[in-house]
Write a structure and sequence with these properties.
The chain is α/β, with parallel strands linked by helices. It has one domain. About 35% of the residues lie in helices and about 20% in strands. A four-stranded parallel β-sheet has the order 2-3-1-4, with no helix packed on it. Helix 1 crosses helix 3. The longest helix has 10 residues. The N and C termini lie far apart (about 35 Å). The relative contact order is 0.26.
């Protein structure tokens, strides 16, 4: 799992996907996904990519090949930041690149368990 860019994946409980307050946030990164999966177009101007729940726009095969596609179609990419709950993306991510995000309430519930 060596890629020419730094990867940080934040794992957190998925919000309600029809929450109007998050509507625009869910589109973060969609244009890059279209570029690497639909258009299959090289874009040398992409140096940083952020995705918020990209699994909303991808099938399982695409989730598992995301990093390979980014390496191929974004050759100047330096950093990738993903917020997800997708097990398929996590399976393809090195453990030291994964950060688990929990609210104070979630932390308290875990501590009581």
């Amino acid at each position: 799992m060596d890629f020419p860019f730094e990867i940080t994946v934040y794992v957190q409980q998925r919000p309600h996907m029809r929450d109007e307050n998050l509507e625009y946030e869910m589109y973060v990164g969609k244009s890059i996904l279209q570029q690497v999966f639909d258009e299959e177009r090289v874009d040398t101007s992409v140096v940083s990519a952020t995705f918020i729940y990209p699994e909303r726009w991808m099938n399982i095969v695409e989730e598992r090949s995301l990093y390979d596609r980014l390496a191929k179609y974004c050759p100047n990419l330096k950093t990738v930041t993903i917020v997800t709950q997708s097990v398929y993306i996590l399976q393809c991510t090195a453990g030291n690149s994964i950060k688990i995000v929990m609210s104070k309430d979630q932390q308290d519930r875990v501590a009581l368990s």
